[in-house]
Specification:
By secondary structure, this protein is of the alpha+beta class. The protein is built from four helices and twelve strands. The termini are close together.
């Protein structure tokens, strides 16, 4: 059970975006939010927060489970249990959402435009401050995903290189990466975007209804960097020891090769670094 006051909610199929429905409907909130339900919290200063999707609890194998192009930092493969459902933003946080918190004159969009493009040049520290603001605006607990939660949500039940399978040729249906049109002659397809970010929701979602879990921008998570999964938490919690002078980012970005857009890919930056490939999405705690 969760507090439901000031929510807008609707249940949708995992493979369909609820954005248009959320913009038109103001449905009564059920006592329990089921997996697949979508909602947005009301902001104290007006408007609504990010569109959130309920992701179910479950267990999964974390790491390079496909056995293809594995790196040492994606091993050993280990089982993780996410014991409680959680809400995850359907999209990477956009400029229009981020600018409700941050001074627009201090935001760098790389000259590509803002609006529904994912906010870039956002450091881990910036993202944490946004979480504090969003929590205070909604009265709910918003946070970064843990690394395990992120991979669980990205896989959406898959054990393949990508959430849709192993074939790079399908990537352009689901991700903005370095493709033929952007000058990569070895890419298997064209996604139609070029060497820049795409508006969120441009590509098809995964089975949990989450978009851009491959490509577009890297996404900060809570965890400190560790060079392997030896002794990693098995309960889905953040790994808060190791090299905490670096923080983990998951997903991949608009400039990455298709082979480097796999679900298992992980990278690290210092927490105050801002650049044109770094963004984030949010989680919301549902249980008390």
């Amino acid at each position: 059970m969760i507090a439901t006051r000031s929510l807008k909610v609707v249940t949708c199929a995992f493979v369909l975006s609820c954005s248009a429905v959320l913009a038109q409907e103001n449905l009564r909130v059920p006592a329990v939010l089921e997996p697949g339900a979508a909602f947005s919290d009301e902001l104290r200063d007006g408007g609504r927060g990010p569109e959130m999707v309920i992701v179910p609890a479950g267990s999964f194998e974390m790491g390079c489970v496909s056995g293809i192009n594995c790196f040492d930092d994606q091993k050993p493969v280990h089982q993780v249990t996410i014991s409680q459902p959680l809400a995850i933003s359907r999209f990477e946080i956009t400029f229009e959402e981020y600018e409700r918190y941050a001074d627009p004159s201090h935001i760098d969009d790389e000259g590509w435009g803002r609006g529904r493009r994912p906010a870039v040049n956002v450091s881990w520290n910036d993202a944490k401050q946004y979480m504090g603001w969003l929590s205070s605006q909604t009265g709910q607990t918003y946070r970064l995903l843990t690394e395990a939660e992120w991979e669980y949500a990205a896989r959406a039940g898959s054990q393949t290189r990508y959430h849709f399978g192993d074939s790079e040729a399908q990537l352009c249906d689901f991700a903005n990466s370095w493709d033929i049109e952007a000058g990569n002659p070895n890419a298997p397809c064209s996604d139609g975007v070029g060497l820049q970010t795409a508006e969120v929701g441009t590509f098809a979602p995964n089975a949990f209804g989450l978009h851009d879990m491959h490509g577009n921008v890297y996404e900060w998570v809570e965890d400190c960097w560790n060079a392997s999964y030896s002794a990693a938490p098995s309960d889905g919690s953040a790994w808060v020891n190791g090299d905490c002078l670096k923080r983990v980012l998951r997903s991949s970005a608009w400039l990455d090769y298709p082979r480097d857009s796999r679900t298992a890919i992980r990278v690290r930056f210092v927490p105050d670094l801002r650049n044109g490939v770094g963004g984030f999405r949010v989680a919301r705690t549902l249980a008390p």
